[in-house]
Every structure is written in C-alpha cells, then in structure tokens.
Design goal:
The protein is α/β, with parallel strands linked by helices and 305 residues long. The protein has two domains: 16-159, Rossmann fold (3-Layer(aba) Sandwich), CATH 3.40.50; 171-297, LD-carboxypeptidase A C-terminal domain-like (Glucose Oxidase, domain 1, 3-Layer(bba) Sandwich), CATH 3.50.30. 29% of the residues lie in helices and 20% in strands. The chain has helices at 29-40, 63-75, 100-105, 117-127, 137-141, 147-159, 187-193, 216-228, 258-265; strands spanning 16-20, 45-48, 81-84, 109-112, 131-133, 171-174, 177-186, 205-212, 235-244, 273-275, 288-289, 293-297. The strands form two sheets. A six-stranded mixed β-sheet has the order 2-1-3-4-5-11, with helices on both faces. It has a six-stranded mixed β-sheet with strand order 6-10-9-8-7-12. Helix 3 links the parallel strand 3 and strand 4. Helix 7 (187-193) runs parallel beside helix 8. 49% of the residues are buried.
C-alpha cells in the first residue's frame, strides 16, 4: 500500500515509479536495494527498465536499448515518474535515440543527477517537460548520509513549484540581483551540450552547477568554454553547489583559487554568483527543478525567492 501519497504539480498521484539505468551499471547493490526499499514507501509499485540489471562494459546495454527503456517508461500511461539508478559517463549516447515527440505528449517527471544531466537537459530542451535534478536511486534514496533531509526536499520539489533549498551556509561570491529560470546540473554535461540542439533555449537563465573530481584548471577550461559559447550572455544568476574532490594536482603550486577562476571566467558579466549551495555529489543531494522562475538578490534574506 502507498503509505505517503505524493501528488505532483500537475495533479498526478505518484503511484508507480519507473527505474532506468541509462549510464552506469548497478555496482553499489546495497545502495540500490536500500534506495528501492525507500521508494516503495512512497508508491504502490516499482517498474524496472529491461537493461537495469545488465552489465555491458561500464554500462547496461547499447545506446538504443538504454534509450528504449526511457521511451517505454514515458509511453506507459501507468508510470507516474521516472528515476535514474545512477550517474556514470555514458548518458550522452542515448540522446539521439529518445523519442522527444512521444515524450512531450506523455509528460511526467524524470529525475537524476551527475551524468544524467545530459538527459535532463535534452528532454527539457526538446519538450519543456518537468525534470528534476538532484536525486537518483543509488546515490540519493539509497545513501545513508543526510538521507531523510535529501528525500524530504526531493518530494517537496515534486509537490510544489517554488524554490525549496535553504542557502544559510552559502557564500556570496559576487553581489547582485537577477531573475531567470533554473537550468543546470553537472558542469561537464552543461559544457558538452551548450550550443547544441539538446541545450535549453531560454534567454534568461539561473545557471546552477556542480562537479566532482575535476582539478581547478579543468574547471577553468570548462567555464571558459561556456564563455566562448556565449551561454553566459543568457545567464542572470549563477548558483554553484558543492565541488567534490576538486583539488589541484597538475598545477598545485601555481594556480589561482577556485573563487578567482570563477570570477575571471565571468568577468564582464554583472550577474550574482552564489557558492557552496547544498547540492552535488557529496552528502547534500539538494534537488532543483528545471524551468523554475526565481529571483536572486544578494542584498536580502532569503537570497532566492
């Protein structure tokens, strides 16, 4: 029985959740089992994509097979929400095989984070369907640290259309104000898709991003790439999450601080920049829906409304 009824902003009751594995195979089995157990307390049934339990090198099947799992979840009227099992490094391969026309006609929430950002960006860009960044089965629902806080925030974002993340410990890197719609996720995916048909076309963006295991010199190159792609011309505000294990090794004795790198990459733009927001690959899996219109004003509390 469904113990805790969840109703999304479209009035859809979350009764049956579809699980897909479009990137990494299920390696952390205990986390996966724990995550599924947690999800079952919020829905009546879990449905698994055909590739979820497979392993083909570091993924679960061909790009077409993984894309078909996502397509089938959207086409099934009984599936109310789709959640990725994990991140990885292969999600970009499925984008050309997704049936965006069908997905748009069968709108339902899809969520994940890290490498799954590729899929979230593409689906939002092509369909404007509701997507939520920040939680998956293994690293979100199945992870012990801060799990209740993360889960409560996730469902609050499913049920409401407003900014729900606290920023009491955030750092204001650059003062200012701006208004736009939230788009972002894993920095690497943002860079990969910026300038392509798979990146949202919104003109006023609140760009949120985080990354893991990237040296600051690499983060600099990615931010400079966004600058050259003219994406920053569309940014009205920037929210940076937790930068996990982003320690300089190559140029450890001669590289600017990460704060200086960010400020330099954004030089000439007047949008506000907030750092250390509670989302990313660490214990805080804060969730952020795409397309949420928010206002940043660093002169007031709360910073975002």
């Amino acid at each position: 029985m469904n113990q805790k009824k969840i109703i999304d902003t479209n009035g859809r009751t979350i009764s049956k959740i579809g699980i897909v594995a479009p990137s990494f195979f299920v390696e952390k089995h205990n986390n996966f089992i724990n995550g599924i157990k947690e999800l079952k307390s919020y829905c009546d049934a879990i449905v698994y994509g055909k590739t979820v339990n497979n392993r083909v090198y570091n993924t679960t099947g061909t790009a077409k097979e993984r894309a078909e799992d996502i397509n089938s979840m959207f086409s099934d009227p009984d599936i109310d929400m789709i959640i990725a099992s994990d991140g990885g490094c292969r999600a970009i391969e499925v984008l050309e095989y997704l049936d965006y026309e069908m997905i748009e006609k069968n709108s339902k929430i899809i969520c994940g984070f890290s490498d799954i950002t590729h899929i979230l960006l593409a689906i939002y860009a092509k369909t404007s369907n509701r997507v939520i960044h920040g939680m998956d089965v293994i690293n979100g629902f199945g992870e012990g640290l801060y799990i209740k806080q993360n889960i409560d925030l996730f469902w609050k974002n499913v049920e409401t259309d407003q900014w729900n993340m606290g920023l009491s410990k955030a750092k204001i890197l650059k003062e200012g104000s701006g208004c736009g719609v939230t788009i972002g996720g894993w920095l690497n995916a943002i860079v990969n898709l910026s300038g392509t048909e798979y990146f949202p076309k919104d003109n006023k963006i609140i760009l949120f991003w985080e990354t893991i295991d990237e040296e600051p010199n690499r983060i600099n190159m990615m931010l400079q790439a966004l600058r050259l792609s003219n994406l920053l011309n569309r940014v009205e505000g920037m929210i940076i999450g937790e930068l996990t294990n982003c320690v300089e090794k190559e140029y450890y004795d001669c590289i600017p601080t990460i704060e200086d790198i960010i400020l330099k990459a954004c030089d000439g733009y007047d949008f506000p920049i907030i750092m250390n927001a509670p989302f990313g690959h660490k214990e805080h899996k804060g969730t952020i829906p795409y397309g949420l219109k928010v206002i940043i004003n660093t002169k007031r509390i709360p910073l975002i409304s």
